[in-house]
């Protein structure tokens, strides 16, 4: 009998670990003050130490002041957390601005490049100008 993909994936150790981290993150977020949610990511819980990566130093510093309170709150939620370890790891790829569309090449510039291309001898510069013009003509 064919197994469903979700059943196959659920049996993988990496998937089980990812699901466990997601559940741990959810509990951690519930214990965090609202203003810090989304700024700290749980990466492991080993031997009573909850390791967390923070988006920046200011958040890490503030959460360090709350570390024992966080550990206590997590213990009340049934997790064996004795201490919370915080490190800074900026998530530079998390908030990447969308690419801006490039403005079209003005008609005067197209004409100037076309004129220059016609006057040049065959070579790399002429080929580059022709590629540029072709690119901006949409062909």
Protein model, in words:
With 139 residues, the chain is of the alpha+beta class. It is 51% helix and 14% strand. The protein folds into two domains: 10-88, DnaA, N-terminal domain (GMP Synthetase, Chain A, domain 3), CATH 3.30.300; 107-137, no CATH class. It contains six helices and three strands. The chain has a three-stranded mixed beta sheet with strand order 1-2-3. The mean pLDDT is 86.
Structure annotation, total helices? 6
Largest sheet: 3 strands, mixed
Query: Looking at the structure, what is the overall shape?
Result: elongated
Highest-level CATH class of the largest domain: Alpha Beta
Determine the structural class based on helices, strands and strand pairing.
alpha+beta
- As for the number of domains, it is 2
Strand order of the largest sheet: 1-2-3
CATH topology of the largest domain: GMP Synthetase, Chain A, domain 3
Radius of gyration: 27 Å
| Succession of helices and strands | HHEEHHEHH
The helical percent reads 40-55%
* Cα separation of the termini: 52 Å
Q: How many beta-strand runs?
A: 3
From the 3D coordinates, which CATH architecture of the largest domain would you assign?
A: 2-Layer Sandwich
Rounded average pLDDT: 86
**Percent strand:** 5-15%
CATH homologous superfamily name of the largest domain? DnaA, N-terminal domain
Low-confidence stretches: none
Question: Briefly, what is this?
Answer:
The protein has 139 residues and is an alpha+beta fold. It is 51% helix and 14% strand.
């Amino acid at each position: 009998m064919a197994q469903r993909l979700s059943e196959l994936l659920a049996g993988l150790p990496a998937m089980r670990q990812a699901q466990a981290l997601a559940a741990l993150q959810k509990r951690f977020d519930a214990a965090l003050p609202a203003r810090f949610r989304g700024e700290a990511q749980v990466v492991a819980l080993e031997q009573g130490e909850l390791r967390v990566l923070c988006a920046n130093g200011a958040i890490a510093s503030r959460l360090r002041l709350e570390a024992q309170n966080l550990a206590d709150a997590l213990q009340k939620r049934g997790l064996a957390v004795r201490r919370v370890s915080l490190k800074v790891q900026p998530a530079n790829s998390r908030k990447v601005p969308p690419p801006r569309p490039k403005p079209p090449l003005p008609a005067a510039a197209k004409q100037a490049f076309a004129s220059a291309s016609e006057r040049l001898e065959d070579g790399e510069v002429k080929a580059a100008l022709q590629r540029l013009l072709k690119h901006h003509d949409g062909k």
